[in-house]
Specification:
alpha/beta; 434 Repressor (Amino-terminal Domain); Rossmann fold; six-stranded parallel beta sheet; 15 helices; 48% helix
Length: 342
């Protein structure tokens, strides 16, 4: 936005902030009508805008009837992680299909460093897209709030917390953990372990909550030695499985919070001489191609990933169009798919 101001001679948002004696985010919130601004700040920003003759890029575009017809899909991962995990590819497939139907351009953005994040923030501030879709968001990720401050419509894949204020599309992750453990318990398993995702992600905490709910429903004692944190990667699943076997060699069931982590766990179980499912039954989440191709084929809790991508795009397009139609908070059902691993 600052670059645009220098090119056209228009005052920039940063100059308004400096004149008003407030931060850039405060100016953005005032411009976009956020209630999270004091009356004093509103007055200072309003006076600075009047004195400088500042016109926000977004307002100028709206006056001209202009739109970019482009949506940014942001995934804070490396290329290797993106192409190794079917989850991201299915989300992209769903988003791309929905945006294609609406004649909107999809801009895929990977953020791998703080420098890339800052560059992307500048890109957003210049209003070069009409909205943002965010995937794999961690609890302390500032990007959703930044997008809100700038005034761009945004939709999350998942949530940062139970009270997430930004529109989102999620699946019933607590139910996924609960149904996985219920299935293992019904198969006679009594020492059921879990491999979680990173616990600064709400999705991982919900699946862990579901695991604990499932143990309680089956009258099984919760044992924290049977819980190992990982990172939704295959290598993370391998590390966690080794840790669990070292702590609890008598475990007879494992709920891995993703198919990819279950694949890593399966490799370690084989190396340790444990047979699946005879000695240790195994359940994952996603019902991805990984589940179907494993040996033995993996029992997995299916979440409709491609449909999640479609719904995210649909919710965002409704926001861009002015609201109505799709709800702002969507939670999709999951379903246990039983295969040979359990």
């Amino acid at each position: 936005m600052a670059v645009s101001g220098r090119q056209t001679g228009r005052p920039t948002l940063e100059e308004v902030a400096a004149r008003a004696g407030v931060g850039r985010g405060t100016v953005s919130r005032v411009i976009n009508g956020s209630p999270r601004v004091s009356d004093r700040a509103k007055e200072a920003v309003g006076q600075a805008i009047a004195e400088l003759g500042y016109v926000p890029n977004r307002a100028a575009r709206a006056l001209a009837g202009a739109r970019t017809d482009a949506i940014a899909l942001v995934i804070p991962e490396t290329e290797a992680r993106l192409f190794a995990e079917p989850y991201f590819l299915d989300i992209i497939r769903g988003v791309s299909a929905e945006l294609g139907d609406a004649d909107m351009q999809l801009l895929l953005t990977l953020i791998r460093s703080s420098k890339e994040r800052q560059r992307f923030e500048q890109y957003l501030a210049a209003q070069r897209v009409d909205g943002v879709l965010l995937v794999s968001v961690h609890r302390d990720d500032p990007l959703p709030d930044l997008v809100e401050e700038i005034g761009l419509p945004a939709v999350l894949n998942g949530r940062r917390s139970a009270g997430e204020p930004v529109p989102y599309v999620d699946s019933d992750n607590t139910g996924a953990g609960r149904s996985a453990v219920a299935h293992l318990a019904a198969r006679g398993r009594r020492r059921i372990a879990t491999i979680t995702g990173p616990l600064d992600m709400y999705v991982a905490r919900c699946r862990l909550d579901g695991y604990r709910d499932g143990l309680a429903a089956a009258a099984l004692t919760a044992d924290e030695h049977l819980v190992a944190e990982a990172d939704f990667t295959e290598e993370g699943g391998r590390r966690a499985m080794r840790e669990l076997l070292a702590r609890c060699p008598d475990l007879d069931g494992v709920f891995a919070a993703s198919d990819v982590m279950a694949a890593g766990a399966r490799g370690v179980l084989r190396e340790s001489g444990r047979r699946v499912p005879d000695d240790v039954a195994l359940v994952g989440v996603d019902d991805s191609a990984v589940a179907r191709l494993m040996d033995p084929a993996l029992t997995s809790v299916r979440q409709p990933i491609e449909e999640m991508g479609r719904r995210m795009a649909r919710v965002l397009l409704q926001q861009i169009a002015g609201g109505g139609g799709e709800p702002r908070q969507v939670v999709l059902e999951t379903e246990l798919v039983v295969r040979e691993s359990s």
